[in-house]
Amino acid sequence: MTTETVNGAKTVCRMFISGPSLLPDVTQVFSPQFVVAVLLWAALAVYGVSTLWWLIETAFLSYGWRPSSENAWGLDDVQVRILTIDAAPVVQGTVDALPDGITDVRVVAERDIDVEGATVHVVPEAFECEATNKGRAVEWARRNVDCGKEYVLYLDEDTIVTDLTGLPDADFVQFTEKPIYTGSRLTYLCEVFRTGYQFEQLSFHRLRYPLYAWGGGFAIRREIEAELGWNVATITEDTNLIWRAAEAYDLEYQLVNSRFRNQAPPSTKSMLKQRRRWMSGTIGDDHLLPVWYRPLYLTRVVAWAFSPFVPLLVVASYLLPGTAPGMELYGILSTGLLVVLFVYMFLGTVAYRKHPVLWPLLLLLTPVAVVLHAAGAMWGVLKPIEEFEVTEKVPPAVIENVNASLDVGDLSEHDGTERLVRESSDAYDSHLFDD
Prior knowledge:
By secondary structure, the chain is of the alpha/beta class. The protein has a domain at 71-266 and 405-413: Spore Coat Polysaccharide Biosynthesis Protein SpsA, Chain A, CATH 3.90.550.10. It has 16 helices and seven strands. Strands 3-2-1-4-6-5-7 form a seven-stranded mixed β-sheet, sandwiched between helices. Helix 3 packs across helix 10 (294-305), helix 6 (185-197) packs across helix 12 and helix 9 (268-285) crosses helix 14.
């Protein structure tokens, strides 16, 4: 070995040790800026997957859905069951608003109440099963209330049916909702926002597992309900039922866009508790979904509960330019996610048929709706509950008093085959916080 070779080797060694390294600097990898960037991208990915799926649902999978104009089954093929604890005045308003063509109306109550126009069944205190609360009541009714009809139509105690003239031929018929103002402007605003998000329901007929069900207005074939039963421990029995039905049957799902009128929570406190229960039940029942559904559902849970942080992602992208590669792209994507929140509110104004002059005001209030709508869900993620707590309801007189478009007696005189407020679905509502 020559001296030149030895000296050259020494030179290479010195260059390897002191020269630019091909490996990333450990101090840079674990720097606060880099860690923040990784966390920001992870958060964006979770929100992005949820938002992208919603866009796919509403823009593509909903193709082919159309309102069912053919009533394969008449109202005489339906038994109505209304669930309550003991809210007689609220239930009476629901019963009064049913179409005359429905002759078999049952009220399943926890306590003995008087309701004109319906047969009241009281769940015995001694009755025991795996299901609890509302699930316990419907399970008792399944076992003990006779039904000779093709369908059982389940309504909440406060559901005012609209445009109900019959049912399409499907195993599970979901009616859309349109919560009515009950005195709290904040909760009404949140319901407009939520109704906009629920435009994704138009795509559920293409999914093996509809992502949720609204128990305030759905009909199920009596044969399927009798076989499945409600005897499971859950606090979101409606979604639990449809997931089990999808697993057990080649379920034919049909959405009917009748916009049944249920009550917006009368206070922010009651709304927060309601959202907490919904989220807790969703988390508790997600094991019913196939493995390939769960990642998608997890992103939806996180996106709902933590959606108020989306604006923070946008702010971070502009306050931390150059923190990591791709932050310019991050700013564009996070801004897009923020825009989608306003899209939800816009679609809600469309569903409520608000006059275009009101659209800018409602869109400006989107951040308020996002925060309040998510607060209860975040509560459910961080501290889930296992007990069912009934959302507070108000009697019909209160609804008629606070809504400018309603007069005294309008609810009791309502014919459930028609719309509640406007005669035409093409007419606009000029009221900002009521109907």
